[in-house]
Design goal:
Elements (H helix, E strand, L loop, with lengths): L7 E9 L3 H12 L2 E2 L9 E5 L7 E6 L5 E7 L3 H11 L2 E5 L3 E4 L5 E5 L10 E2 L5 E11 L4 H12 L3 E3 L6 E4 L8 E6 L8 E8 L2 H11 L2 E2 L6 E5 L5 E5 L10
Parallel strand pairs: 1-4, 5-8, 10-13, 14-17
Antiparallel strand pairs: 1-5, 2-3, 3-4, 6-7, 7-8, 9-10, 10-14, 11-12, 12-13, 15-16, 16-17
């Protein structure tokens, strides 16, 4: 395993200051996770703590700018990983011990060295169904798809696994199981920035969506294997008919 090889992947929910508390409360309800003490110079960071396994979801209160999702890619040597990523087409933004970069399509992410290895188990809800945030989807406009897909395949050292029946979707499956699966989606937009959203897997999509609606989410019409929802802060995400422990269709 190289010093730049990812061994874990965390997602950071970047929330606008005015919706931070509302967003944190919603995602705590969605996941069933506890909230760590805040940290940072202004108490702007916190972690959603699963009851089992290592954490992989964090929250940040932004001073300005729109809400978003960014990724923390865990590696043994962030400096070596950043240098390699720049060679793959990234732009380095800052080195603070962790290294902040921007992908060729404009998506910000970080290389960090925090240790983690044990994937949490899905949450069991009172009616017996299970769910968990198991995947991050990178939404790639058509004009930047090829370059961006090649970049992330290089970062994760994995070839895209294209879904034959829906070729706009491709998975990156590195040799090592990360906390989050990585899905690439070619969107209908020709131009625009690369963004990301989270996907929850569940053994009962109808029950899980109803639970999210009760927490304050708004749902779009169902798709084939997933439902698109919007959280109370305006963040879109999906609930999928996939086993949250394996990522496979239930």
């Amino acid at each position: 395993m190289h010093p730049w090889s990812p061994f874990w992947l965390s997602a950071m929910l970047d929330l606008e200051a005015g919706s931070f508390e509302r967003g944190v409360a919603f995602w705590r309800g969605v996941t069933g996770f506890a909230l760590s003490p805040t940290r940072g110079a202004r108490g702007e960071f916190a972690t959603l703590m699963p009851p089992t396994g290592d954490d992989y979801l964090r929250v940040q209160r932004l001073d300005d700018g729109p809400g978003r999702v960014h990724l923390d890619v865990h590696v043994a040597d962030p400096r070596a990983a950043a240098d390699r990523a720049v060679g793959l087409g990234a732009a380095e933004l800052a080195d603070r011990g962790y290294v902040v970069l921007r992908s060729p399509g404009g998506f910000e992410f970080c290389f960090v060295s925090h240790p983690a290895s044990v994937r949490p188990t899905p949450t069991t809800w009172p009616d017996g169904h299970h769910s968990m945030v198991y995947q991050v989807c990178l939404d790639l406009p058509r004009s930047s798809y090829d370059v961006e897909a090649a970049f992330w395949a290089g970062v994760f050292e994995a070839s895209p696994e294209v879904l034959a029946r829906r070729p706009e979707f491709a998975w990156l499956r590195p040799d090592r199981q990360l906390a989050l699966d990585v899905l690439l989606q070619r969107t209908d937009d020709e131009e625009g920035p690369v963004t990301a959203h989270l996907d929850l897997g569940t053994t009962d999509r109808e029950a899980e969506v109803a639970r999210h609606l009760a927490l304050g989410a708004v749902a779009d019409p169902d798709e084939e294997f997933w439902t698109v929802l919007t959280d109370p802060t305006g963040r879109r995400y999906c609930v999928t008919t996939r086993d949250p422990a394996t990522g496979r269709l239930t």
